[in-house]
Specification:
about 240 residues, alpha/beta, Undecaprenyl pyrophosphate synthetase, 6 strands, binds farnesyl diphosphate
Length: about 240
């Protein structure tokens, strides 16, 4: 395998990495801190990893920030995650300098008006960026996304008896984006948890026991090196 000399990265990088940012609660518990401290640390890791993916030339990074099921958590924890997103968005003037294009995936109607305005501003302010496409899945559920897409198609008068895979894909939140090549889940869990279930049909997976707040550039390097050694056949032969 060919490696770029400077940072030992393989020549073939995944176009699209998707990450389930898991383990914030356990990270905090280990330190005798409230779960919300784990999410704060996780939000910092998110920013570092997004910057690093941008730096090494990854085209798409999609992170799972809040699922349609996460509303079941205690209110103070939900509020703390929304506050972290709020603060990140307020800081989003920095997106321009970083050349990162941000987009939110999910049913945003359940979020506050204030958050919706900040999201629209952040997406708009970064729309011309040519670096990393950074997708933040928020109030996102894979099944919800598919049901939504079918409802949209039905409402538009499309003939659902003639529905194609492409048409369905075109109506998902990820419309126009490549499917994730590599899905990373830290914290020793081996589940997809309703994440990008349509788009992950041919994804490769990489797992680590590291908890998300401790996840680093080194983990991304290991994941992409592992990815480069995989033999992807998409159901065919070699
Ligand atoms: C899963 O870990 C993590 C979440 C449900 C929230 C992730 C949110 C962030 C990292 C902050 C998002 C902020 C921005 C700016 C994108 P867990 O709480 O389930 O951990 P556990 O399994 O150890 O309890």
């Amino acid at each position: 395998m060919l490696f770029k000399k400077r940072n030992k990265l393989p020549e073939i990088l995944p176009d699209h990495i998707a990450i389930i940012m898991d383990g914030n609660g356990r990270w905090a518990k280990k330190r005798g801190l409230p779960r919300t401290a784990g999410h704060s640390a996780g939000a910092k890791t998110f920013q570092n990893i997004a910057r690093y993916c941008n730096k090494i030339g990854i085209k798409y990074l999609t992170v799972y920030a809040f699922s349609t099921e996460n509303w079941k958590r205690p209110k103070d924890e939900v509020d703390a995650i929304m506050k972290l997103l709020h603060d990140y968005l307020v800081d989003s003037v920095n997106f321009k300098d970083e050349n990162i294009k941000v987009k939110f995936l999910g049913d945003l109607t359940r979020l506050s008006d204030e958050l919706n305005v900040l999201i629209a501003d952040a997406e708009n302010n970064s729309k011309d960026a040519t670096g990393l496409n950074l997708n933040i899945a928020l109030n996102y559920g894979g099944r919800d996304e598919i049901v939504n897409a079918v409802k949209k198609l039905a409402a538009s008068g499309a003939d659902l008896t003639a529905l194609t895979e492409q048409e369905l894909s075109d109506n998902l939140y990820t419309s126009g984006m490549p499917d994730p090549d590599l899905i990373i889940r830290p914290s020793g869990e081996y589940r997809l948890s309703n994440y990008l279930i349509w788009q992950s049909a041919y994804a490769e997976y990489w797992f680590t026991d590291t908890l998300w707040p401790d996840f680093s550039e080194k983990d991304i390097n290991e994941a992409v090196i592992s990815f480069a050694s995989r033999d992807r056949r998409y159901g065919g032969t070699k």
